[in-house]
Amino acid sequence: MSIKIYSIELVVKQLKSMLTKYDNGLMTYQISQLKEIRRIIHSNDSKETKEHKIRNIVESLYPSSGGLTDFHVWVEDEKERIRINKPISELNDRLWELVMTN
After folding, report:
1. CA pair distance 90, 58, nearest whole angstrom
2. Is there a contact between 88 and 16 (Cβ–Cβ < 8 Å)?
3. Where are the domains of the chain?
């Protein structure tokens, strides 16, 4: 497994865990797509095929509205809200960076 694919898997695993924990009922599609990325990573497809399939999924996860970038957890306490949302935002940025840049 390449370092890039391995890094993508780590980010997807962490992001899926956080989305599952804080799911507001609107993240079913996104969670299923993250599961699909992990399935692709462990498939027998070539590295190039894996990267192509993962890229297509990631593009679908970040539409102009309603995607992963719009997911935020709301709690009254501002410090708690930041504590929860900051890592989600960082994981989103890292996934995009890993998949969409060469």
Report:
1. 15
2. no
3. 3-100
43-96 residue pLDDT tens: 999 999 999 999 999 999 998 887 888 899 999 999 999 999 999 999 999 999
Longest dimension (CA), the chain: 47
Rounded alpha-carbon distances, angstroms, from residue 35 to 41, 57, 80: 10, 11, 27
Q: 46: helix, coil or strand?
A: coil
Structure tokens at 84: 């929860």
pTM of the model: 0.91
Cβ 33 vs Cβ 19: under 8 Å: no
